[in-house]
């Protein structure tokens, strides 16, 4: 590698770093509150990438019953999850309709108390989506909502097809925070997940009696791209050797990293910031110590990506059953 430092150095490379440790307090009624006072000054709020506005849509009427938001990378995956949700909850819809209008960046479906929405690939795309989803939930006055990211990833030293529940998310330098450049400053925000929710998901996974694959918990590394940041040596540009790759993969393994993806930092950071329960469940498509390229046939890929979906669906059914039982209990108490 030609290290021409003069061309890459910046004399102004001395920026203020802000460690933003804020977390919104939960409201007593469970409503999602947002830490942005500027929203109260808006006459109307346009969620541009969802094709919706408080002027043209009644968010409370449309989405006030939402308890779960499930997001994943592709439109087709989230359409399949919407169909699975309708089947599992015995919801007979004449047609599952994409609710997003122009500019058609994402797809979003509503099935009973569930939103199933695509977030695209990587931190920038998911960041846009989750900002507007959180505002949607806020305008709809939703209460006690749980968010999930269900997707795919690369496994460090676990077989392809393994389901990973993220306990902790770190960047490529193994730092547990999400870093942004805001108003000329570097802002670092904590990434954290509700460990009780993770334990509940793990318990449900153990009860599923899955054949042929494991569900594990561990640390997820969030990368900024698919190739170099994920230690691949098969991209268009690469300045590292096979030995370099295995040395770093082994280092990550010893640090507790079990899988790599591209969205966990912003998802975990924003959900923690607004204090909403959230979890990430991803299936691994490749064992990175065996190779860089994903070679999964269409049938196996379809089955693998259903594994996190089934876990989330079992969680939702149990939560809805608990809520139903609690409602019946309160009704009986009032008689």
TrEMBL record:
GO cellular component: cytosol
One Pfam family from the record: PNP_UDP_1
SUPFAM superfamilies in UniProt: Purine and uridine phosphorylases
Record GO terms (molecular function): uridine phosphorylase activity
InterPro entries noted in UniProt: Nucleoside_phosphorylase_d (IPR000845), Nucleoside_phosphorylase_sf (IPR035994), Uridine_phosphorylase_euk (IPR010059)
Domain of life according to the entry: Eukaryota
UniProt binding sites for substrate: 230, 232
Binding site for phosphate: 105, 149-152
Single Gene Ontology BP annotation: uridine catabolic process
Nucleoside phosphorylase domain ranges (all copies): 67-316
Protein family: Belongs to the PNP/UDP phosphorylase family.
Annotated protein name in UniProt: Uridine phosphorylase 1-like
